[in-house]
Amino acid sequence: MSLPWSHAERNNTRLENERKKFYEDVSISHGEGGMFEINLDRRKLKTPGGKLFTAPNEALAIAVANEWDTQKDILKFYSMHMTTLCNTALDNPTFRSKDQMITAALKYLETDTICYRVEEPPSLVELQNNEWDPVLNWIEDRYNVVIGSSTSILGPEIPQATMDTFRQHLGSYNFWSLTGLEYVITQLKSVVLAFALIDKHITVEQAVLLSRLEEEFQIGHWGNVEWAHDVDLYELRSRTAAGALFVHFSSESSTVKRKLMQD
C-alpha cells in the first residue's frame, strides 16, 4: 500500500531537512548583553538568516544545546523545535511586530477548536460538552470574559471586550514568549487550550487530546486504520510541549546553575 500523498510529502520534506552531523561537542558560552551562545566544537551556531545564535537566558540555551547534543549521525532539524523557535525570534523572517503577532493569534479565537460544537451524534455532543465546557468555563472565569460556543459554521460571536482583554494579556508577553505562545496556539488551533496549557491548568497530553477530540472520537468508533495517526499524535505532543517550554524558558530571568552535560 502506498503512503497518502501528505505523508509521502512530509517524508520528502524531512529528507530535505536532514544533514550529516559535523560536530562532536556542544557547549554554552556567555555572549554580549547577557545573552548565551551555542558552540558546536569551535564554531558558533548561526541562525538561517546568518545572525549569531543567542538565547536570552541559560535555561533556554541549555534546552537548545541539548537538542544539538542528542542528535545522532544525522541532524534532524525538523525535530529541533526549541532551536527553530529561537531562530524565528532572532530572524523574525516575516518582519512582524508584536501587534501583528497578537492580531494573528487572536484570529484563532474566532475559529477556536473548542467553540465549534456538533449537533449530532448525541454521543459526540455529550463528549464535547463534558470535555470542553470545563476548560471554557475556566478561561471565562480566569479572565472575566465571555466566549461561549456555537453549532453555527460561523462559530460564536466573540464580544469586543473579550478580544480587548486577551489583546492586553498577550501584550504582557515579551517578543520571545509571544513567539512561543503563538506557536502553541497554531498547533492546537485554540487560544483557549493554549492559555489553559501555559497557565498550567491542563497538561500537554490533555491539551492535545482536547484539540483532537472529534478525531479521537471517530477513531474510537471506526478504528485506527492508519499507523500515521500515532505518528501525528506524538509529533503534535512534541511540538506543543516544546512551545509551552519555550514560553516559560523565554520568560525565565534567573540563571540556571547546573551543568549542561552530565559526564
Automatic annotation (TrEMBL):
Main localization of the protein described in the UniProt heading: mitochondrion
UniProt keyword terms in alphabetical order: Chaperone, Membrane, Mitochondrion, Mitochondrion inner membrane, Transit peptide
Localization (cell): Mitochondrion inner membrane
GO biological process, one term: mitochondrial proton-transporting ATP synthase complex assembly
InterPro entries documented for this protein: ATP12_ATP_synth-F1-assembly, ATP12_ATP_synth-F1-assembly_N, ATP12_ortho_dom_sf
Keyword Cytoplasm attached: no
Any one Pfam family match given in the protein's UniProt record, by short name: ATP12
Quaternary structure, from the entry: Interacts with ATP5F1B; involved in the assembly of the F1 component of the mitochondrial ATP synthase (ATPase). Interacts with FMC1.
Record-stated family: Belongs to the ATP12 family.
Name used for this protein in its record: ATP synthase mitochondrial F1 complex assembly factor 2
Organism whose genome encodes this protein: Oncorhynchus kisutch
Taxonomy of the source species: Eukaryota, Metazoa, Chordata, Craniata, Vertebrata
Gene symbol of the encoding locus: ATPAF2
